[in-house]
Amino acid sequence: MIDLLLMAGASALSSMACACLSSSSPLALAVAHRPRSHAHAHSHARITKRQVRPRCCSSMYDYNNSAPPMPSLSPLQFPTPARSSSGSRLRIFSGSANPRLAQEMACYLGMELGKIKIKRFADGEIYVQLQESVRGCDVFLVQPTCPPANENLMELLIMIDACRRASAKNITAVIPYFGYARADRKMQGRESIAAKLVANLITEAGAHRVLACDLHSSQSIGYFDIPVDHVYGQPVILDYLASKTICPKEVVVVSPDVGGVARARAFAKKLSDAPLAIVDKRRHGHNQAEVVHLIGDVKGKVAVMVDDMIDTAGTIAKGAELLHKEGARAVYACSTHAVFSPPAVERLSSGLFQEVIITNTVPVVQHQSFPQLTVLSVANLLGETIWRVHDDCSVSSIFQ
Q1: What pLDDT is recorded for position 258?
Q2: Contact, 281 vs 261, CB < 8 A?
Q3: pLDDT digits over 202-259, tens only?
């Protein structure tokens, strides 16, 4: 009798299981409609010329030392499917250097920033605690090493260490602005190569990968013993310039120094293959430059000066003066990183430039604003790169 009851129970359970797995059951529908990998969808994303604002998220960082946000434009939009962090192993955390950029990146990805506690003790020491689990997750830490460079760098190292000790599977340091990239070679005796030192610190702290934007020189990639994804802010600026009513035949791209010729040539090629001019300068010391003469013709042209960063604006301002003397009709300044150390704002707003176009890799505070300034957002570009790294897709195809 007991054996018969057991056999009947097993038969009933088997019937229930078959019913649950029938074509009309929720479980079968969920299995049948599982989303496929987005690898192929992302590998062919193209840059369009539509201005799209990033989607808003409910969570926003509010650091006590952060200034009111500057308005920024997001001219790049990648036609990718909606993404959600539910059930994903992707996590994005922001340091205190540029939380608004990190928030825009998270909005582009359709997710919220991870919860993190960052504070400073009375003696200046930095404390970091992750307030959610990252065990087995693919973690991206957004922290440019902009001024104050040493504090922001140390904060990044401690964030990496916190993730490593929390058993994160992969840790990527997203550094929109790599502050020590200018110290990338030994020009005189007894000089340090700080770029290599900082690369070693980031690696030893526990980072598995670095995502950087417009390094001062590409050779800095070789200082890292871990993979580096080097993205460029030029597509954002080019997309914005394409929306302006400037005749391509009237444009000449100008490199502010000989070292930036390769960057300016690549920019000119994508800007309707515009002609190139070079400002020849002599540097007498750090942040001290003297313009000698101009190589190329800018008479009656719209000069677009291209550089990777603007610090004190001495080089680019003296170059603009020379361009006006040589007969340039208007001068535009384009740069990815706006460090804006004094007296940069005074030089840039003195009337030499028709427009100063920068990106938000470095936060621009309210007192640094002036009428000719235009701030473009690289959030979509960096957000797309983060997703492709996480999804094991091509990054270089973004710039093709």
Answers
A1: 86
A2: no
A3: 999 999 999 999 999 888 899 999 999 999 999 999 999 999 888 888 999 999 988 8
Other Cβ atoms less than 10 A from the Cβ of 33: the count is 7
Length of the chain equals: 400
For residue 104, CA distances in Å to 66, 190, 231, 310 come to 16, 42, 17, 23
Q: Which two tokens stand for residue 241?
A: 């310039």
pLDDT of res. 281: 74
Report whether pLDDT(144) > 50: yes
Q: Is 128 helix (H, G, I), strand (E, B) or coil?
A: strand
What ranges in the chain are assigned the alpha helix state H? 2-20, 26-32, 39-42, 99-108, 149-165, 194-205, 234-242, 261-270, 314-325, 344-348, 379-390
The residue with tokens 């539910």 is 86
Terminal Cα-to-Cα distance of the chain (whole angstroms): 75
Say if residue 129's pLDDT is above 90.
yes
Q: What CA–CA distance (Å, rounded) separates 114 from 91?
A: 6
Helix locations, 21-91, DSSP H: 26-32, 39-42
